[in-house]
Every structure is written in structure tokens, then in C-alpha cells.
């Protein structure tokens, strides 16, 4: 196998590593593919098989050692933009029908919601502003 064949084989290997990257969404395969591309560059420069393999190993391990912890840190972080019912917690609403421990209606984020008071002994009258503390199903829990 001559040098030109070596760099082609490394590129074929990089492409082959891209397939499981797409299928499994495991970024480690992408890092190995980049290592194979680095080895292809080394092979294209005419350096020997040992140097090619070293380039592959060094680049792949370096990428996994650096990128993987960063990616793991980002996956542990909660999203900064609250959506869905998470976005409604802490919002203010206006009472449309008396709200007490058993039920009522509020206008929350432009929509009419069923609601009940967190404190079952407390009641909120029409026109009062309340704060949403939780959403249980389709019912807003207010204070």
C-alpha cells in the first residue's frame, strides 16, 4: 500500500466513523472521525504508518479529553429559557371567577385557566391579582 492509498483509507475510515455518529448520536464517533482525518493529512504529507496511527490516537484522545467534559457540563445545565408550564410559574394572573380552595377561574398569559388557592382557607375575588405558584394538570395553583 503506497502513501496515497494510506490517506484515502484514513478518509474512508473517517467517513465510516461518521455513520455511527449519525445513527447513535454519540459525539465520540465524530471525534474519532476527526482523528482519522488528521491521520489522513499526516499520510498525505508522506509520513509513515506509525506517525499516522500516533496522529489518529493523539487527536482522538485529545478531543475526547477536552470536548467530552464540556459537552457533559452543558447537558447537566437546565435550559435558560423556560417553556410550557414552567414559563407560567411565578406569573401574575387576574381572577375572573372567585378562586378558593375548591376552584375558580383566572386569566393567565391571555388564556382562561381553572385555578384554586394554595391556602384552602383563602379566597380571591374577581379582579384581584394572584401569583401562580404551580400548575397541576390544567389547574393553576395561586397565592
From TrEMBL:
Residues 86-142 form the NfeD-like C-terminal domain. Gene3D superfamilies: Nucleic acid-binding proteins (2.40.50.140). The keyword Oxidoreductase does not apply. Keywords: Membrane, Transmembrane, Transmembrane helix. The chain crosses the membrane at residues 6-23, 53-71. The keyword Membrane applies. It is found in: Membrane. It comes from the Bacteria. It is a multi-pass membrane protein. InterPro entries: Membrane_assoc_protease, NA-bd_OB-fold, NfeD-like_C. One of its GO terms (cellular component) is plasma membrane. PANTHER family: INNER MEMBRANE PROTEIN YBBJ. This is NfeD-like C-terminal domain-containing protein. It comes from Streptomyces monashensis.
